[in-house]
Amino acid sequence: MLYKSTRGGVSNLPSMEVIKQGIASDGGLFIPDGIPCLSMDDYRMLAQEDYREKAVKILSLFLTDYSQEDLTRCVHSAYNPEKFDVPDIAPVVKLDDKLYILELWHGPTCAFKDMALQLLPHLMVTAVERTGEKEYIVILVATSGDTGKAALEGFKDVSGTHVVVFYPKEGVSSMQQLQMITQEGANVHVVAVEGNFDSAQSGVKAIFADRQLEQKMRQKGYRFSSANSINWGRLVPQIVYYVSAWLDLLKAGEVSEDEFIDVIVPTGNFGNILAAYYAKRMGVPIHRLICASNRNRVLADFINTGIYDRRRKFYKTVSPSMDILISSNLERLLFELADGDHERVKAWMSSLQVKGKYSIDAQSLRRLQEVFWGGYADDGQTLQAIRSTYHEYSYVLDPHTAVGKWVYDEYRRCTGDNHKAILASTASPFKFVGDVLKAILGQEAVDARDEFELLDILSRVSGLKPPSALADLKHKSIRHTILCRQDEMKDVVVQLLKIDEV
Ligand SMILES: *Cc1c(COP(=O)(O)O)cnc(C)c1O
After folding, report:
1. What 3-state class would DSSP assign to 191?
2. Which of 45, 122, 339, 462 is most buried, with most CB under 10 Å away?
3. Ligand 1 within 6 A of 266 CB?
4. Residue 447's pLDDT is what?
5. What SS3 class is residue 223?
6. Ligand 1 probe mutation, 231, 234, 272, most atoms within 8 A of CB
7. How far is the CA of 417 from the centre of ligand 1 (A)?
8. Closest CA to 165 of 174, 366, 22, 156
9. CA distance 208 to 489
10. CB of 56 within 8 A of CB of 75?
11. Pairing relation of β-strands 286-293 and 261-266?
């Protein structure tokens, strides 16, 4: 399997190169030349395997230049009992006769980003080694919360790598900050940046673009790389869990072999739902992909109108990991909608850059709406979905998943669609404990209590044990205290990696 850019400037690259480079040199995103499809016989056999074996099989269809041994080693390093608190890795929970929850948050940071970021470091190191390079990989991340911690846990103590995470001092929740500043590992650095997420993001971009620094790095035997969600190495592990979830339902007799299902995904950067789309293309019988936005509903509007317009107010919501106005991974879907016409993709992307908006043609819109349905929930509706799901099923949703639940109910009301459905659950409710308890018990229950008291309260309410990754933070010491301005970020990297020393 070879890869090309959505913008037409690069083609015929093997997956190792694609994973090392992250973004194509023409500014586009890498996509495979074709989507592999398995037969029902293959799927029947795969249904009998455990999560790791399913992962190796599916990865091997896309990452064909990796050996079976390498993929097996990578997958076992990523998905094991030390990292995940359930043997199934990504279990499916039945809510009622129609709706199943795919829990993607049993990894070390309690959000779904672990599913990809536990595996990516191993894929990256293997790619560097097998292509004969000797360099150390230095991962730079600007984070608004979940990605930074997931990258730290994923790259922690992976030999041949360093990771430096920059987070906005004012822009992350107290639990997220605590998760990062207590991070252990010999190769990890966490730095607070004055300002908001944009400052951290712009600073990282400037470091990536600094050719002089790159040269110095090379002399030291380092190369920068990025772990952000446009890297193909983050997307392909996400395809696995949609295939796995369907196979689990099949094996349990919850669906029949020719039965179509709907999939609902709470969406921000369009990565997670795009993986579900690829699973559909691989032969998983998915009827509709339901894209759930929060108040930053740029994607829901796009699906309904064919117009992508980011010139709008940005809202901070109770589902912060979906507070995004530029959904980078959408470019991959646009390529499919345009039937591989990269000139059209380029025109849309340049219109987005120059005018802040683009509109797709009628035919592309029709193709989009044949598969996708878009809806949104504001904060009030999100909290209401948490409350009603708790009262109806004694099941506690986190605010991101609750956006998905609200939109799913809306979808059924609007369309009368009656297929069984899988809702991708992207975070543990314990990670967003304050808003979850506010929804269930009211504001008074939350006021004047610290995060750790709230974990105990949610534990009583839900009957679940708080994830030790969160509860244990109480006793961890703070290891990362550097604070800098955006214009000092480069110097900080130079010092941390001792690039100036010979
Ligand atoms: C990142 C994230 C999302 C959004 O996922 P995308 O792949 O960006 O669409 C949703 N929920 C949680 C908890 C996240 O961390």
Report:
1. strand
2. 122
3. yes
4. 94
5. strand
6. 272
7. 25
8. 156
9. 12
10. yes
11. parallel
The residues that are catalytic are: 113
Would you say 293 and 283 are in contact if contact means Cβ atoms under 8 Å apart?
no
State the distance from the centre of ligand 1 to the C-alpha of 324, rounded, in angstroms: 10
How many C-alpha atoms does 42 have within 13 Å on its Cβ side? Answer: 14
177 lines ligand 1 (CB under 6 A): no
Contact 250, 225 (CB under 8 A): no
Question: Ligand 1 pocket, 321 CB below 6 A?
Answer: yes
- Verify whether ligand 1 is closer than 6 Å to residue 270 (CB atom): yes
Amino acid identity at 63: L
For ligand 1, atom 1, which residue shows the shortest CA distance? 321
Interatomic CA distance for residues 65 and 73, integer angstroms: 15
| CB contact at 8 A, 279 and 440 | no
Q: How far is the C-alpha of 101 from the C-alpha of 245, rounded, in Å? A: 9
* Helices 232-251 + 120-130 axis angle, to 10: 130
Q: Which residues pair with 349 in a beta bridge?
A: none
pLDDT score, position 286: 98
pLDDT beneath 50: ranges in the chain: none
pLDDT number for residue 502: 55
Decide whether any atom of ligand 1 lies within 6 Å of the 271 Cβ. yes
425 Cα: distance to centroid of ligand 1 (angstroms)? 10
Structure tokens at 366: 């029709």
- Best residue for ligand 1 mutational test, from 103, 109, 112 (most atoms within 8 Å of Cβ): 112
> 140, 142, 136: which is closest to 161 by C-alpha?
136
Pocket of ligand 1 contains residue 426 by CB under 6 Å: yes
- The pLDDT, as a whole number, for residue 134 is 86
Nearest to 31 by CA among 52, 9, 46: 9
Token pair, residue 413, equals 């009301």
| DSSP label of 63 | -
Looking from the CA of residue 271, the nearest atom of ligand 1 is: 7
Q: How many Cα atoms occupy the beta-carbon half-sphere of 381 within 13 Å?
A: 17
pLDDT in tens, 381-401: 999 999 999 999 999 999 999
Backbone angles phi, psi at 118, to 5 degrees: -75, -30
Place of tokens 């018990």: 441
CA 3 to chain centre: 21
**CA neighbours closer than 13 Å in the CB half-sphere of residue 92:** 24
At 118, is the secondary structure helix, strand, or coil? coil
Helix/strand/coil (H/E/C) assignment for every residue in 150-176: HHHHHHCCCCCEEEEEEEECCCCCHHH
Dihedral over Cα of 439, 445, 449, 451: its sign: negative
Q: C-alpha angle with apex 179: 453 to 432, nearest 5 degrees?
A: 50
437: tokens are: 């308890």
pTM: 0.95
